């Protein structure tokens, strides 16, 4: 194999990782979460500026930890999309500059492929595989019949599940990112509030979370208008059961229909305790293997980008120095990046 240096800057984490012959030598992550917390969500312009400030430092630390010199690197990999356009640009400019300066290959990587392939640090992938990709920006069920072969069989028609967690948390007065406090409080609550499960009963793997979010917001406001207080743990529990229930329902049907051998959880929301527990129960029932990612795999990091890049290096998937970012890049088009 080779020495790969990967860069991730698609949202609010600046990260650089280095692998050598498939072994992870370093994975340095600088998170901006505390800065964005006071705004209740990621501020794109601030994210880009912080990536600019941090990327040099993160790169230096990753090289030192790995005891690697830039001259030793065989390929520079970078997240090309999806993500925030300005944030993506910072990582892309850095990777292109390094590839040009050291005359090495440039590898464009799809962010969600990264979340899926992060699981390869723990276990070999087995096909047909169902990737349950749930994050702040995406909610997709991806069928994989082999390596780097992605088919989206279902996706959200509106909001991503993580976005919905964050908005519901905000209306309940909980801090950003909302998934963490909701997950914690749900354990202390009871499912007493009736919430809708849009598209349930329909013959589709698509999901919808926007109506669920609006329902929670309306319920909270109606109670407040009546002078009543919403029971926050009960609302967290009712919301979590419903939102995760939507994902579990689609995934369970897909496991049966596509004879899935292995289920992989990927993305920020895969840290959710209820999703992990329920998906494991369903997989055990249906005889499918499941990879539950360790917590470090759930947040954005460059190690996951390096893992995909190793496959692309073997496949000789390289880009020219005119490569641009694509904030809406579909995982099905991971090998289409000509500008
Ligand atoms: O993948 P990610 O780090 O960022 C992108 O969207 O790229 O995902 C962040 C999302 C946030 O919406 C956050 O609220 C959610 O993941 N999240 C969780 C949990 N931990 C983080 N959602 C539910 N339960 C959790 N334990």
SSE inventory with pairings:
Elements: E1 3-8, E2 13-20, E3 23-31, H1 33-37, H2 44-66, E4 75-81, H3 85-102, E5 105-110, H4 111-117, E6 129-134, E7 139-144, E8 151-155, H5 161-171, H6 179-186, H7 210-225, H8 232-257, E9 262-266, H9 273-286, E10 289-291, H10 295-298, H11 302-314
Parallel strand pairs: 1-4, 4-5, 6-9, 9-10
Antiparallel strand pairs: 1-2, 2-3, 6-7, 7-8
Helix pairs in contact: 2-3, 4-11, 5-7, 5-8, 6-8, 8-9
Bound molecules: 5'-O-[(R)-(carboxyoxy)(hydroxy)phosphoryl]adenosine (KG4).
Question: Ends: how far apart?
Answer: 28 Å
The overall number of domains is 2
- Listing every helix as H and every strand as E from the N terminus to the C terminus, the arrangement reads EEEHHEHEHEEEHHHHEHEHH
Helix content: 40-55%
User: Strand portion, in percent?
Assistant: 15-25%
Strand order of the largest sheet: 3-2-1-4-5
CATH architecture of the largest domain: 2-Layer Sandwich
Q: Which class of secondary structure composition applies to the elements?
A: alpha/beta
Write down the overall mean pLDDT: 96
Distinct small-molecule ligands in the complex = 5'-O-[(R)-(carboxyoxy)(hydroxy)phosphoryl]adenosine
pLDDT < 50 runs, ≥5 residues: none
Describe the structure.
The protein has 339 residues and is of the alpha/beta class. The chain has 11 helices and 10 strands. The chain has helices spanning 33-37, 44-66, 85-102, 111-117, 161-171, 179-186, 210-225, 232-257, 273-286, 295-298, 302-314, and strands spanning 3-8, 13-20, 23-31, 75-81, 105-110, 129-134, 139-144, 151-155, 262-266, 289-291. A 5-stranded mixed beta sheet has the order 3-2-1-4-5, with helices on both faces. Helix 3 links the parallel strand 4 and strand 5 (105-110). Helix 6 packs across helix 8. The chain is globular, with a radius of gyration of 20 Å. The model has no long low-confidence stretch (mean pLDDT 96). The structure holds 5'-O-[(R)-(carboxyoxy)(hydroxy)phosphoryl]adenosine. 5'-O-[(R)-(carboxyoxy)(hydroxy)phosphoryl]adenosine binds next to helix 5 and helix 6.
